[in-house]
Amino acid sequence: MNSIILQIAAKYIRSLLILFAVLALLRGHNYPGGGFIGGLLAALSVIYYSFAFSAKQVRDKLKISPETYITTGLFFVVLSFVPSVLNRLELMQGVWLILQVPVLGELKLGTPFLFDIGVFLTVIGVTFLFFFSLTKAE
Fold it and tell me: What does the pLDDT read at residue 138?
């Protein structure tokens, strides 16, 4: 498509969708669906961008291949199992690390967030693979 308006709008909408994707990931890591919905929004931002330009251009412009997103995501998912196994807890039971940050106060990092990051990256990769195979952007 050669619409100048769509191309300009796609640049701004892509940024907004990525912002919402990160917000969904951060907000949702304590609730169901944060990594999945965030991953879909992040992938949608790139797919929408490809409507304004072309899927082939977007595929060539991607710095990270969809397979790398999937591999990295699955690595984070498996990595989220390790703390519970090392602490002799049930598999996938949440383990939390509490850090004292000077300005922010108490910061809780846990394995559910690590799992959600893995889901986030995997969903991005799978969505890219699906979209690029549909558009034949090899």
Answer: 57
How far apart (Å, rounded) are the C-alpha atoms in residues 66 and 48?
A: 16
Q: What is the number of structural domains in the chain? A: 1
pTM of the model: 0.86
Question: Could you tell me the two tokens for 101?
Answer: 């940050």
Can you give the residue range of the structural domain that contains 31? 4-135
Determine the Cα–Cα distance for residues 34 and 24; give it in Å rounded to an integer.
5
Q: Which tokens in the block code for residue 2?
A: 């050669």
Q: Is residue 29 within 8 Å of residue 119, measured between CB atoms?
A: no
7: which 2 tokens? Answer: 């191309």
- Tokens coding 35: 């990594």
Query: pLDDT tens digits for 24-40?
Result: 888 876 676 788 999 99
Residue 65: strand, helix, or coil? coil
Question: What is the H or E stretch that residue 54 is in?
Answer: none
